[in-house]
Amino acid sequence: MSATPSSQTDRIPLGVAMMIGFCAIAPLIDVAAKMAVQEVSVTQVTFFRLVVQSVLMAPIVLARRQGAWVSGRALSLLTLRALMLIGSTYAFVGAVRSMPIADALAIVFVEPFILLALGFILFGEQVGPRRIGASVVGFLGALLVIQPNFQAFGLVALYPLATAMFFAFYMLLTRRITREVAPEAMQFHTAALGTVLLVPVLGVGALMQWPLLALSNPALGVWVQLVCVGLAATVSHMMITYALRFAPSATLAPLHYLEIINAVLFGWLFFGDWPNAASWAGIAIITGSGLYVIARERRVAREARRATLQAVVSKP
Predict the structure, then answer these.
(1) Model pTM greater than 0.85?
(2) Can you give the three-state secondary structure of 286-304, one letter per residue?
(3) What are 279-303's pLDDT values in tens digits?
(4) How crowded is residue 296: how many other Cβ atoms within 10 Å of its Cβ?
(5) Cβ–Cβ < 8 Å for 232, 25
(6) Other CB atoms closer than 10 Å to residue 270's CB: what's the count?
(7) Which pick of 23, 66, 69, 294 has the fewest CB atoms within 10 Å?
(8) Where are the domains of the chain?
């Protein structure tokens, strides 16, 4: 039996609470990763994020009796999704190894603008001059954040842009796979496939004795940090999955920018990092541009629904 409109409305506060929970927990992924990557390689942090996520999601998928097997087409898309997750995680962990978490995350928030561009290039979606203008302004805000970090850390300051690009493709693939694979199963398969894909990379690193690709046996505290990376990633991503079940994405999207506030707070509490004036200006511009794009998306969606309703009503 389908949910009634009133019951759907009653679940929106739960969706909002889940989204706020995501914004509170997601920066802890970056905190644990920044701590761990001081002692182990970026590859090891990325690998154990996926290992822990796959181990945690396996019993959930089994308990919900969701398909352990997927079609060949879905498997191909899930493999691509895993590659995009590896790329985005690797680039971001590489960035926060040196950069403040809030600065790196602010740059990653240009991802909605990249999605707009990809939607136009790949699917011919209409963008419009206002959203193009907002995207340009958002990228200018990103440059304000990048510029002081580029002076301090060099090319590492560009890693979050790579994260945003990888994550944009990750989101496009997620939209496609959602039609065929349940969210919990998708999280499990993506993490498991990512783990499998990284095993030969780690093997090559060990064989060639490349520290960047090798595993090490750090102190117990670092192992705890690695587990926390995977735990925070699993919990936060499940929270946003359920948030999107309970509330419309248009309602939740503006709340996503709370993640930057929490990233600033955690960066200050754990590492003493505080954005400088240029970074704060860039964060404000990126956030404002993103909120404008979200508002435009909501307006366009309303107008499309109104036009569809009028077309139905006007039929003889």
Answers:
(1) yes
(2) HHHHHHHHHHHHHHHHHHH
(3) 999 999 999 998 888 887 777 767 7
(4) 16
(5) yes
(6) 16
(7) 69
(8) 8-313
